[in-house]
Inverse folding.
């Protein structure tokens, strides 16, 4: 896979980012989540009850206590200072995240580190326009950081002593990356799994040591309170639970969601573990990422940043085969992301308008969910038929 020189790739990425900032998409960014992070850090410093507070927009702090501890440093800076700094951090981490994805087995056997860097930059130039990245940037979210920690961990050799630490830390900041610790365990990378669970346990212990009251409230049930995270029918909620609420025109969908989540989650992690035990972390990561996003109680559209490396890896495979159906699928997925079509429906205007969508609007509002379910279904069918579309890992021959 050929790529231009690194300097050219940097220039292409920089030009794409500049074009985004100058376009209509680059204006009027609210940075609502960054505001919540900053105020959450300030609440810890002032000894306020973190999980009893409501921030601008009636938003609650929904992250583990250690996340608020990590955000205490933000309270000393103004939003005018924080906004460009956090944006710049995500801009730098985006190609880094995609470069780590290209270092997963088996694609790493065919891609040098330098080539992964250059391709990561070019891919980021295209990805920065996708709706999940745009929403992450405009909200001041940390999803690119979370995905980078996960992919860095999975791209490291299994012999690495600290493999799993990144996944454990990501889980401490946002609980959903825990599925990757389970993946390490099921693929028999026991030391890495133990490291992941150990680091996560360390973040919990740190929270209890620093803010025992908030930690008792969060782990005592606040983390599982649906009203804290917002309206489940919101079109921004691209999880199966949100799709059911919109489809059934009701927020009373727990039975349907739990049954579907159990089936999708079990099938996804089994398929991922099977791939991982063959040495195929490309497929394993992809299936884990999609499964986790689908079964989570809430997967806001910016959480789907984790699916962008999946799209890149799928597209790379389709180009290398070449595989026309795969290229068409990658083009369709990218088109949905570029079109921002999940926002083509009324969003709480009038209140709870997403519970009254017509069939075409439901397709728009559930775009990511439908893509994720389709990808998992195709993976399951191809696995059962023993028709693996992703490149198989190459094993070194053992000496006689």
């Amino acid at each position: 896979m050929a790529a231009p020189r690194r300097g050219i790739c940097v220039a292409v990425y920089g030009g794409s980012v500049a074009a985004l900032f100058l376009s209509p998409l680059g204006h009027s960014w609210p940075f609502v989540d960054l505001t919540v992070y900053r105020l959450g850090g300030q609440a810890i410093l002032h000894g306020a009850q973190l999980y009893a507070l409501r921030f601008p927009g009636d938003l609650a702090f929904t992250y583990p206590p250690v996340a608020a501890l990590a955000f205490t440093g933000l309270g000393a800076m103004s939003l005018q200072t924080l906004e460009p700094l956090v944006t710049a951090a995500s801009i730098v981490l985006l190609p880094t995240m995609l470069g780590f994805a290209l270092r997963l087995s088996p694609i790493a056997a065919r891609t040098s580190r330098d080539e992964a860097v250059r391709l990561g930059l070019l891919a980021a130039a295209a990805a920065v326009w996708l709706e999940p990245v745009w929403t992450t940037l405009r909200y001041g979210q940390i999803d690119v950081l979370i995905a980078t920690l996960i992919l860095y961990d999975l791209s490291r050799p299994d012999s690495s002593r600290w493999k799993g630490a990144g996944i454990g830390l990501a889980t401490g900041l946002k609980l959903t990356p825990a599925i990757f610790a389970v993946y390490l365990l099921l693929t028999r990378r026991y030391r890495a799994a133990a490291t992941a669970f150990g680091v996560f346990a360390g973040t919990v212990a740190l929270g209890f040591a620093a803010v025992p009251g908030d930690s008792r409230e969060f782990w005592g049930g606040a983390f599982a309170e649906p009203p804290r995270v917002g309206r489940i029918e919101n079109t921004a909620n691209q999880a199966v639970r949100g799709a059911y609420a919109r489809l059934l025109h009701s927020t009373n969908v727990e039975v349907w969601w739990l049954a579907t989540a159990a089936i999708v989650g079990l099938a996804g992690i089994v398929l991922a573990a099977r791939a991982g035990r063959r040495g195929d972390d490309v497929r394993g990561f992809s299936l884990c990422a999609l499964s986790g996003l689908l079964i989570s109680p809430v997967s806001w559209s910016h959480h789907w940043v984790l699916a962008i490396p999946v799209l890149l890896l799928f597209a790379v495979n389709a180009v290398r085969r070449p595989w026309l159906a795969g290229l068409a699928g990658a083009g369709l997925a990218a088109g949905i992301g570029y079109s921002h079509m999940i926002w083509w429906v009324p969003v709480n205007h009038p209140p709870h308008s997403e519970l009254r969508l017509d069939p075409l609007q439901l397709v728009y509002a559930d775009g990511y969910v439908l893509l994720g379910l389709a990808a998992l279904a195709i993976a399951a069918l191809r696995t059962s038929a023993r028709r693996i579309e992703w490149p198989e890992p190459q094993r070194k021959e053992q000496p006689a």
About this structure: The chain has one domain: 20-384. Residues 392-400 have pLDDT under 50 and may be disordered.
